[in-house]
Amino acid sequence: MNDIFIDDTGEGYPLVLVHGYLGSSEMWCHQRDYLSNFCRVISPALPGFGESYKAQSLDSIHEMAKFIIGIIDEKKIDKFNLLGHSMGGMIVQEIAKLEGDRINKLICFATGSIGEIPGRFEPIDETRKRLQEEGADISFSRVPKKWFVKGDKDKNYYLCKNAVQNVSSKTADNALKAMKNWSGRDDLKNIKNETLIVWGDKDISYNFDQIDTLNKNIKNSKLEIFEGCSHNVHLEETEKFNNLIKKFII
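Above: the chain sequence. Below: its structure as tokens.
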């Protein structure tokens, strides 16, 4: 794991944060700075992304889940809280399938139970096609704007710009392929963990049907909707989001 970046700060019960497509460890900086006052916050950058851009990327959600489990094992952590955003939400659902007994509380944030998301701003194959035709620079400036109500005018958009600086087209395409080929819908009924589902009502990546499917099929779940927020609630309504997470896990 020489090329893998893992931010690990704070003390106490571990909270593992898993970022999404075109994300990074730094994109959790506002959560890390606040929540590390109350618990140990571990936020890796997935292989090929963000600060781990030199590492070989993965092309399946299952392999990404095993990668996160490997980090947790290496740190000799048994039980932990787990939060995943977007593609990271798929990864944490897969971790719940593989190692559910080790998860204390689960947070599925702006995500769904299938990767080929009906109602997404465009089909994943279209994103892959445009990535190939237009190149990484155009794709990486085009897609993240859709994650904020204010687009690239949001005060925290810089975190998205930082995250993609060194990401390759191959890494991005592998992640899109991983999402497209994944489904966790049939496994939702097996998630026994207390689960918080978080969604912004202006999210055009994951519509309400995807969130509702999670909430109705995970037995011990509750849903929190942020009005006037898009896909990156944690960067648009940081204080409210942080307080919600703290209240849930502490």
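The longest strand covers residues 103-109.
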